[in-house]
Every structure is written in structure tokens, then in C-alpha cells.
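can u pls check wat happens w/ iron/sulfur cluster
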Amino acid sequence: MKTLESWHEEEFKSEITSGVVEALGEGAYAATLARALADCAGAAESFCAERPFACAAGCPHCCVLNVAVLLPEAMTVALWLREKLSGEDLADLQKRLAAHRSWARWMDDEERILKQMSCPLLDAYGGCSVHAVRPLACRAITSLDSQSCRDAFIPVVTDEDRLVPADLFRKVVYDAAFTALASGLRQVGLDDRSIELGTGVLAFLEHPEFVERFLSGDRLPQALWQ
Ligand code: SF4
């Protein structure tokens, strides 16, 4: 494992961006992108692997917050779901994603907590159903105390600060990976915009043609952000 002492943010970002450009320089394919995303997450995790956290499957409290992802992250989750789920389960999930988009897309975190608008990708046991391909933003957040999480995400209106002790170094590392990935996408002429997680995944599920559109360097319709 790399250590905090060996962390140099600009060097890290530059390595990630170069890796993405090298991987996609010969042409962007869904599988190459999925590997490039896994490499980004792996590079970040190499600095964080043995750092403590209290998060575990079945503790889904923070999965109510807005999650911003880059388009290839949403695409990779959608393609993974299409491969793993039966037609019936996929249709059910699309309905949940569509309902979530209608209700939650303009809500801020506070409203989401109050209305308990949890991520539609949570499974019935409070685990992440896309854990293997979960976005960088989800990997960035870890709590150091599960009881604080439970208290912080209780849906009540309060003026009190509800603080959760978190691993800020992990957040810095994953945020840097996110920025460097976006930079790599930009350099190879791919759309580097971010989008709300559920909206992005649903877009690629409802419109399979968006995969080719994205990979060819076209921009997805602006309506997705409106
Ligand atoms: S993708 Fe997974 S980890 Fe991220 S918010 Fe949804 S359920 Fe939670």
C-alpha cells in the first residue's frame, strides 16, 4: 500500500490522466473505458486500502445523498446491470430509476434525507447492488463511526449540526481521481460532463444508442441536464 507520505496530488492526477489517454488513445470502446475506470479506482485505493472505516454492507444511511458521476461511470453501471439482471429485474429497476428521477432530481441533500429518497441501486438488504462498479464519488465517502451516520441521516428538521467523522484523505484521493479522469476524457475528445447518478444510468438503459454516441465523441442531449 502507498502511504500518506508518498501522496503527491499533482503527480497522482497526471499519472491517472496519462493512463486514461493511453488506454483510450487508440479508440474508445465500452470495455476499454470500464478497464480505465477500474484502473482509476485501483490507483486511488492503493493509497487508501488499509485505512480504517466503519462502513459495511447493510449500512446504507449515506446512500441517500446526491451522487455526481462522469458519463462513462453511468454508462459502465448501466452496461453491467444489463449484463447481470434478468429482463424482468431490469425493467423493475428502470421503473424505480424513473420514479426516483421524477421525485428526487431537483432535491438537495437535505430534502433527500427528509423524504428518505435513497439510491435506487440499493438492494433489499441495504447493500450496493453495483458494488463492483460503483462510482468514484461513492468510493470517496467513508464514515469512521456508524452511529454518527445513523444519527446524521434521521429524517428530522433540526438546527443542530449533525457531523459524521470521515476519512478526509480518502475523499481527497478519490476526488483527485475523478478530476484526473475527466481531464483524460477531455483530452481524447470524449464528453467530460458529470450527471446525477440515477439520471445517467437510466439514460444509458433507456437509450442503448447513447453508448455509441458517447464513445464516438458526440455529446449526449442537453435535455438530460434540464
Ligand atoms: S451506487 Fe451504491 S454506494 Fe453509491 S449511492 Fe447507490 S447504493 Fe450507495
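The chain has one domain: 4-225.
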